Amino acid sequence: MKRVLITGASSGIGLQLARDYAADSWQVVACGRDREKLQRALAGTDSEFCVFDMQNRGECQAVLSAVVEPDLVILNAGTCEYVDDARHFDAALFERVIAANLIGTANCIAPLIGRIRAGGRLALVSSSVTFLPLTRSEAYGASKAGLDYLARTLAIDLAHHDIGISLIRPGFVDTPLTRKNDFPMPGRVSMAEASQAIRQGLARGKREICFPFAFITVMRLLSWLPRGIWFRLGQKMVGRPS
Fold first, then answer.
1. Cα separation, 160 vs 157, whole angstroms
2. Bridge partners, residue 27, by sequence
3. By CB count within 10 A, which of 81, 92, 147, 225 is most buried?
């Protein structure tokens, strides 16, 4: 039986992935900070639970170094906070988001990378926000851009170790986190649709998994605009309700 380890498995995309992999007869190692929340969310599935705080390097090392070798690791856990007033930049907010999304991911990679079975795969969940600089996304976008670079460099350095790397860049997904947004979310997909796109892409060994297609196509086209044009378009978004 194949084993998949998923962080952020108590809610959102991580939970949907855990349920779907379990239904497909994978042995799921579900990770989160709250054991009771994990147990409630994944009741009825044959899942193992790993409880730790990704921002605590010592906890990550102690817990994840004892995990039975996985075939697939999906580092999905993360957070999102927006910079509402760049004129009074919130360095503490910036640090929180970088610590959760980027440093927390690195804390998990360190004990896991040597445990992934030969021919296995490591997937990092980034975001389509990295296609373009968007208003209020200074912290979130920077953290996800860091993940993009991390994934692409790991892919080069780990290729001769027979470990595949996948970078996952979703558009808007209907999760408890995105439901807090009070701005339009074009192309939003369900968690089930997101899980299907991710699982299919990973099964095919894709290096980058971007979805949904129409939304990503628009983002790609906009990213090809001269920087000055996008700068003026981006400015028009400033000041809208957030």
1. 7
2. 3
3. 147
Rounded Cα gap, residues 82 and 107, in angstroms: 24
Distance CA 43, CA 141 (A): 34
* Token pair for 87: 């004129």
Please tell me the distance from the alpha carbon of residue 25 to that of residue 1, in angstroms, as a whole number: 7
- Please, what are the averages of pLDDT over each run of 10 residues along the chain (242 residues)? 97 98 98 97 96 98 97 97 96 98 98 96 98 96 98 97 97 92 90 98 98 97 94 81 39
- Determine the Cα–Cα distance for residues 69 and 160; give it in Å rounded to an integer: 19
Q: For residue 165, what are the contacts with CB-CB under 8 A and spacing of at least 6?
A: 121, 122, 123, 124, 151, 152, 154, 155, 158, 207
Please tell me the distance from the alpha carbon of residue 2 to that of residue 17, in angstroms, as a whole number.
14
Phi then psi for residue 121, to 5 deg, are: -145, 145
Is pTM, for the whole model, over 0.85?
yes
Sheet holding 47-51, edge to edge: 47-51, 27-32, 3-6, 72-75, 121-125, 164-170, 208-211
What is the second-level CATH architecture of the domain 3-237?
A: 3-Layer(aba) Sandwich (3.40)
